[in-house]
Amino acid sequence: MMDNSPARAAAPSTPRSHQLSESYGEIDLVELGEGLWKQRVLILGITAATMFLGLVYVFAASPEYLAEARLRPPTSADLELLSARSAPFLATEGTAPAEAHVLYQAEPARIFNEIVATAQSAAARRKAFEALAPGFLETSISAEERARALSRFLAAYAVSQQGDVQGAAGAGVTLQVAFRDPDPAFAAAAANTLLQVTNDVVSLDVVDEYRTAMKSRIKSLQAELDRRINAVRISTERTITRLLEDDSVKRAQLQDELTAELRKTAQERADRITALRSALASARSLGIEQPTSLETLAARSLPGETSFINLEDRNEDLLFLRGTVMLEAELTELEAREDDRPYTARAREIEKQLQLLENNRTVEYLRKRTDFAAYAPQAAEIEAEIEKLESFLERDFSGLRIARVDQIASPPSQPVAPRKRIILAVAVLLGLMLGVFVALVRNAVLNRRESGPD
Hints:
Blueprint: H1 4-10, H2 16-38, H3 40-60, E1 65-72, E2 84-86, E3 101-104, H4 108-120, H5 122-136, H6 143-155, E4 157-162, E5 174-181, H7 184-286, H8 294-299, H9 323-336, H10 345-357, H11 361-368, H12 379-393, E6 404-407, H13 420-451
Antiparallel strand pairs: 1-5, 1-6, 2-3, 4-5
Helix pairs in contact: 3-13, 4-7, 5-7, 7-9, 7-10, 7-11, 7-12
């Protein structure tokens, strides 16, 4: 023993930790396979257990079915009912008419976007739930149970869009609505119901937009028609006022002219009376009772007397030659005359014009006018356009197609869950991994026990 001590002391020493590491390394590399093989029953048992649990889940879990429906965007022909063009806005006098414009044009891409947004909304899904609830929910369930059923119902939907909606008439653009449920018939009904609800909601919205555009155009046309009719009414009232004013001015002018004419006639009568009185005095002084002539009067002069009558001068007033009888008669008549109107032709004409002015037929008929639209410019065209737009409002939209059905959901024949093969494969893999892990841990514990403390 003593002889060997120097040799042991001179030998190079190896650290304890390194020796243990090499020992365990040799065990891991050499004995690992043997250890796992010895515990193959444990590994297979754990694997069989997880596989059994997988089988239990596969056969115990309720199958779920996935029903799918698809929509495609509408074409322009499908939306033809929603197309409406307006006539050029009728212009007033002196202005150019506006160009015709589209009142409403339903674009397929925009409509399809609305369909997608509506199908993805919770509001549409709730409407589908309310439509289907009487068939699968008890009326006596509590509000909390109904809320949970609604939550599960909403989560069972999957809505997605395939393809680019721009250029919606192109191929490959679809809206997919899927519903997952243990009942295949209910899954199909839920998918189709959401499509129907979406179609109804978007159809109502689009038709409301269309009718709003029509009503707005009708309102603007009616306002324009009322403005033109009111302009005719105002113009008529102004015409009546102008005519009445013109009549008043004309009446005053004629009245002044009549007064002047009567005054002139009265003055002429007074002058005639003065002339007759002077001639009557001359006739009496000459003893002329009956009408005579100058020659007869000159012949009455005595021989040798000089006649005061100049037969060559015919310009002197010879009214006295009419004689006292006629002069007195005319004078009496002129002095007894109270009204000179019948003896003045112009006065009678003026009175006739004044009488016509008392009843202006133009004013009379203008005051009786009630249909001012008949005199409004282009009123008939505006009324025809309003009538046409009102006929647009009465269109039957029951056959409106805002989308094309690419696939109607039908009850699926094969469930989509649980996926038996995948579940069993995963269970076997997890069991094998768990068995190996447990075997490794057990092997390590046994090895440590066998080695004991150094």
